[in-house]
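Suppose you are handed a protein chain with no further information: no name, no annotation, nothing but its sequence. What can you learn? This example shows the usual starting point.
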Amino acid sequence: MLVSLSIRNIALMDEMQVDFSKGFHVLTGETGAGKSILVDAVTLLLGGRAQKELIRKGEEKARVEGVFDLSDCPAALELLKAQELDEGNELILSREITVQGRSSCRVNGSLMPLTQYQQFTALLMDIHGQHEHQSLMDEKRHLGFLDASGDDAHRQLLDRTRTDFEAWHECKKTLDKLQKQSEQAGERMELLRIRQKELKNARLVPGEEEDLARERDKFRNVEKIENGLREAYDSVYNGSDPAVEALRTAVSALGPIEQLDEAYASLRARLDGLYYEAEDIGLTLRDMLSSLDSDPERLEAVQARLDLIRRLSRKYGGATTGEMAEKLKEIEAELAGFESLDDDLDALGKQEKTLKAKYQKTAEALTAARNVLARKFEQEMETQLRDLNMAGTKFQVSLPSCPPGPLGCETAAFQIAPNRGEELQPLSKIASGGELSRLMLAIKSVAAKREGVPSMIFDEIDTGISGRAAQVVGEKMAAIAKERQVLCVTHLQQIAALADHHFLVEKSFDGERTRTRLTPLTGEDRVNEIARMLGGDPESARKHAREMLKNKA
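A reasonable first move is to predict its three-dimensional structure. Written in structure tokens, the prediction is:
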């Protein structure tokens, strides 16, 4: 039950707090006073679309907060405990929106994503907007109205049907995808095997292209290399004045004097080291000369190998030998996957049949339950319509089959015959605006008898009705209010007079800005408001208003 509502900077409301109680509440006021702004604020609080147009002009943000008593809503209490947010029987919801289009939701002070937030709000209030009765004209909505009249067992069956369908549908999607892969597997496997053979036969070694390039360059420059090596060898070891001989002479020259000074001995030792290093270099140069090979066949083989590697590299997007070796592993892994495809298809096919059978069994149970529920719904609707001054109306629910889906294997269609002896026809063809309003109220009345949300809001449900019809609509809402908290925006005095609590919505101008305010009415203030709604002579209207309130009591 909604205990209090705080609004800040919503449309014409700058700051307002309203307290509510059990029973039947009405909101009245002149046209344009802002009665529906309160409904807009509650809609926002309950997780409705965050429209920045709701923010009061000149303000940066708007906020609405509601305090709920959960004593009559065990489902919400259980959800709070599961989320570790319970604080006794009280729940505080708040919603804030900014002109930048951002919004935030809080449950008992904790920030929460909108979808999770809406799990709480769906358990608290049901809003019937002033145009919602038009949804009765859309047969696609009828199944939802029928299911809403079911009990907990019916709702659990709906949940199982949706869960079983989603499991079957996901499995079937995977199976279809795998079957498509299987159909394309032959062509794909042929291509993969060609590439596997090509890369496997190439026997690629990561980094070998660099080694081959160096070897090729040596073959191409063999004469240049030989000249360089020979000149260096002759200079060091084999020429007319080899460096080795010069170093040997220098070492010998310092031999007789090395004992005379440590500096001479050090120089001789250094020259001695250079002599042996030069001798080793000379020998190395000689070996390089003797091993130098200008084998044209090897050059041809190296160039052919490099050509193969570069051709493959271009084919595979400029890949290196290392990357192509990895590509071969990927190809072999994909081929191995194709080889197990038949086994996967067989296993998934069996799973899909099992899940389909499970869904069909659940859907059949739901169909049977809906057939029973439809007959009960028809009887209850005719009873409600009789109370709403539509006695003699025949109401029928048909359940035509439809393709399997998360809601089962049938849809629903409502038909009525407003007068005895007439044939049943679809609502969309024969129901008037006033009849639609009463039909929707009847549906809400049936739903109110089930375990459901503890609060209901009706925004101008009295559209298209007057006189005796308005009286019975008010009486019906008053009857609902004995089981649920009811808030109703109305322009009819018959309904207003039946309420337990009456609020006046009015606009005022302080010289700078227009503001909407909400005032609880009692005593003569309430009499005067109902008299205003009656119109005519003020004194006669007040007298009539007192009679209406007296009869209600």
